[in-house]
Design goal:
The protein starts with 5 loop residues before the first helix and ends with a helix. Helix 2 (19-29) packs parallel to helix 4 (48-56) and helix 5 packs parallel to helix 6 (97-114). It is globular and about 45 Å long. The protein is built from twelve helices and eight strands. The longest helix has 18 residues, at 97-114. With 244 residues, it is α/β, with parallel strands linked by helices. The chain has helices spanning 6-9, 19-29, 40-46, 48-56, 71-83, 97-114, 132-139, 145-158, 171-178, 209-215, 224-227, 232-243, and strands spanning 10-13, 35-39, 60-67, 88-92, 120-124, 163-165, 183-186, 219-222. Helix 2 (19-29) links the parallel strand 1 (10-13) and strand 2 (35-39).
Length: 244
C-alpha cells in the first residue's frame, strides 16, 4: 500500500459484547480512525446492524468471520457479506483451494450483482494464538509455523484470493515470497511494555505497530491496546504517531 496514511492502515477491532458498546466506542474514536474490524463476538450479538453502524459513521469494515465450510456454503456467506458493503473479509485458507476459489468468485459476482465494490478476500493462515508446539500437537502439522503460513498463503493466491492474515513474525517472509501486490493483514499488535503498553494475553506471535509496519504489513488490526485503554482515542492516536 504505497502512500497509504497510518490512519488507513489501522483497523480497530470492535471486540465488544453489544451494539451499544460498539457505538459508544466508535463515538469516542470518531475522527481518529477510518476503519474497523468486526469479528464473531459482535457479529453474533448484533448481526449486520454492526456493519451498518460502522459504515454509517463512514468507516471501512473488515468483516472477520473466518468462513470455513464447504465451497457452496462459503460462497453464499461471502455473497451476503459483499452485499453489506464491507471492504474486506476472510476465509480459512485451510478450507482448501475449492473453497477459497468459491469465495473469490462469489465476491466478484456479488459485487457486480449489487453494484458495490468487490471486497478484498483474505485467507487466514495460522492463528496468532498458536506456536509450533501447538501446531504439531493439536493439528498434526510437522512443519514450522513460518513454512505452514507460507504454504497456505501460496495456496490462497493460487485460488484467487487477494491476501492473507498472518502474525507479525511471518510478514517479512510473506512479503519476500509473494511480492508487494499481496495484501497482508496483521493481528497480534501489542505496545511494548517499555512504552507503557499491553501484555500479549492469549496471542503468542506478536509485535509492536512500528515493527509490523516496517516488516511490510498493509493493515494492522489492533483490539485490546485500544478498546481496553482508559482513553481509546488517545491510545489510537499514540499508535498512529508511532506508525507515522
Amino acid at each position: 500500500m504505497p502512500g497509504a496514511s497510518p490512519a488507513d492502515r489501522l483497523l480497530v477491532a470492535l471486540d465488544v459484547e453489544t451494539l451499544a458498546a460498539a457505538g459508544g466506542l466508535l463515538g469516542r474514536l470518531q475522527g481518529v480512525v477510518t476503519g474497523c474490524k468486526i469479528g464473531t463476538q459482535l457479529f453474533t450479538a448484533a448481526g449486520p446492524a454492526a456493519v451498518e453502524a460502522a459504515r454509517t459513521r463512514g468507516l471501512r469494515v473488515f468483516l472477520d468471520l473466518k468462513f470455513h465450510d464447504i465451497p457452496n456454503t462459503v460462497a453464499g456467506a461471502v455473497r451476503e457479506a459483499t452485499r453489506l458493503g464491507v471492504f474486506m473479509l476472510n476465509v480459512h485458507a485451510s478450507g482448501g483451494a475449492a473453497m477459497m476459489r468459491a469465495a473469490a468468485e462469489a465476491a466478484a459476482k456479488a459485487a457486480a450483482d449489487f453494484a458495490v465494490p468487490r471486497p478484498l478476500c483474505l485467507g487466514v493462515t495460522v492463528l496468532t494464538s498458536l506456536d509450533r508446539r501447538a501446531l504439531q500437537r493439536d493439528l498434526g502439522v510437522s512443519s514450522t509455523v513460518e513454512a505452514h503460513v507460507l504454504r497456505l498463503a501460496e495456496r490462497a493466491r493460487e485460488a484467487g484470493l487477494d491476501g492473507c492474515v498472518a502474525s507479525p513474525r511471518e510478514i517479512g517472509l510473506l512479503r519476500r515470497a509473494l511480492g508487494d501486490g499481496w495484501v497482508i493483514v496483521t493481528p497480534g499488535i501489542r505496545i511494548s511494555p517499555a512504552e507503557g503498553g499491553s501484555r500479549p494475553d492469549d496471542q503468542v506471535r506478536v509485535a509492536t505497530p512500528r515493527r509490523a509496519l516496517a516488516a511490510g504489513a498493509d493493515y494492522l488490526v489492533v483490539g485490546r491496546p485500544i478498546i481496553a485503554a482508559p482513553d481509546p482515542a488517545a491510545a489510537a492516536r499514540a499508535i498512529l504517531e508511532e506508525l507515522a
